[in-house]
Design a protein that fits this description.
It contains eleven helices and ten strands. By secondary structure, the protein is α/β, with parallel strands linked by helices. The chain is globular, with a radius of gyration of 19 Å.
Amino acid sequence: MRYRTIGDGRTSFDVSTLCLGTMWMGTRTDEATSFAILDRFVEAGGTFLDTANNYNAWGLGHGHDSEDVIGRWLASRSIRDRVRIATKLGAAKKDPALPLSTSEPTNYQGLAADIIARESRESLRHLGVDHLDVLYGHVDDRDTPLAETVGAFGELQDAGLVGITGISNVAVWRVVEAREEAIRQGIAPYGLVQQQYSFIHPAPKPGRMNFVTPELLDYAAASGVDGRPPLAVTAYSPLHQGSLARPDKPLWGGVDHPTTHARIRLLHEVARDVGATPNQVALAWLLGGEVPVIPVVGASSVAQLDEILGAAELDLDASVRERLDAEPMERLAAA
């Protein structure tokens, strides 16, 4: 396993370059299997865990299921000091009687100060810990003033309850404004942004703000200097829920177009040539990019995790990366 430092200009610590996503733990993935996956991840040197306060409230659970499993695992293993825990708030149900939805009306709790104060402490209770290493706003909330949201995160940091704060599913300009607001208030700015990102990309669409963009990567690369504190990017769904490796899996979120199919064919060709799996190559592509990101990878079995772990130290040489990054129209013309 390899490691990198994340920080916000005031707080910093090292995390494994692969982050273990735990969305289905406690629901689709039973507790015994979840414990085995967590054990194997730590055994392999993994230190970064990702969860949320609404996993899996949209179908199989009550919302804190994943946090509860992690909490029981931490208590049974006594290894809190060996892992860094990230959770999220703001996208749990505002009205428990209504479904959780990503389209209007969304029924999200949002990022008002009282929500942040209450839900962060609820996550601490479910996880059984006294502090959160990372706390994200799960979905940007444009109905709440940025000054209120940013200030509420800062209060948690001042109280020693949160290390680094972050935001997810957000436009780049909102990240910039939030970080500038934090500096105005004299508190630590967001040090992390979590967006969807993988080897395949969606077609452009107005209002689609949940994907990593070249602009975000450029902004992150330009951080870590005077006046612009560090900013790291974490990537959810980096394997697109299995569709990079399995043709029977659906392509969702605007990525089902000819360029995607050409890139997946290319991914499989390269994987055969380098003696790795398509999933491993896709993760290595993210890890070794000009602006490296931290993939948040989920697994429903130890065998799946072992495949993922094979990407942690897979280096793609320059010629392979050039091949993977070839202009998509060139691939389409050759297909």
